[in-house]
Amino acid sequence: MLLFEATSYFLTGVPVSNMLDGTSGLAGALCAVLFFNEHNPQDAVVFAVFPNGSNGLPTPAPGRVVFVAGYQQINAASIPTSTPLTVTLSGGSSGIPTGALGVIYKAFFSSASAGASITLAPHGASSPGAYASIGNLAAASTALHGGGLLPLDANGQAIIQASGGTCSVTLYTYGYVM
User: Fold this and answer.
1) Which residue among 32, 50, 53, 137 is least crowded, i.e. fewest CB within 10 A of its CB?
2) Could you tell me the residue ranges of all domains in the chain?
3) E strands in the chain
4) What is the pTM of this model?
5) What is the structure's pLDDT at 3?
6) Which burial class, exposed, middle or buried, applies to 174 when counting CB atoms under 10 A from its CB (0-12, 13-18, 19+)?
């Protein structure tokens, strides 16, 4: 952090308020710092970030839901029972940027087994059942559709797990949360 009135001095290691989004600290942005002790510049906190003219404002602004063109992430992937499929949903041409906290998704599946279902969760979730699920198929060889918000892990990954029978899964994304 370069001080406005003392432009030859940098401050490092100053804590940042946990109310600020991680995407807001852009090069060129201005920030508000509260100093608690005039003799110890490390005893301070950055509590606001704001644009410096046209620089320093993330696009889109953080903390918002952003819609993008629908993108087919997986198509008819065969997922055996209790063998999670790990998918990377951010980056590439998906329109979901690296660093997204979650995605807006639509998924559908079919299975040769009545009663089958799928669970979608962030990769590495200790309790995948606490997240999204679609199912149980009322009859074999039918399909179910569902959608919602799905959190991602730090690498932009999620898992899809089948229960009750091998499932053929298709997944689209059409938005994200930063």
Assistant:
1) 53
2) 1-59, 65-177
3) 30-35, 44-50, 65-79, 85-88, 102-111, 117-122, 132-135, 142-151, 157-163, 167-177
4) 0.70
5) 61
6) middle
Q: What angle do CA 106, 76, 118 make, to 5 degrees?
A: 55
To which residue do tokens 């992937």 refer? 77
* SS3 category, 128: helix
How confident is the model over 91-129, as pLDDT tens digits? 989 999 988 999 999 999 999 999 999 999 999 999 999
Contact criterion met (CB below 8 Å) for 168 and 111 = yes
User: Nearest Cα to 117, choosing from 126, 128, 101?
Assistant: 128
Output the pLDDT for position 1. 54
CATH no. for 65-177 = 2.60.120
Q: Beta strand 117-122 with 157-163: parallel, antiparallel or unpaired?
A: antiparallel
Which two tokens mark 81?
A: 């029972």
Burial tier of 139 (Cβ tally within 10 Å: 0-12, 13-18, 19+) = exposed
131 CB-side CA count, 13 A: 23
pLDDT band at 58 (very low <50, low <70, confident <90, very high): low
DSSP state of 75: E
- β pairing state of 167-177 and 132-135: unpaired
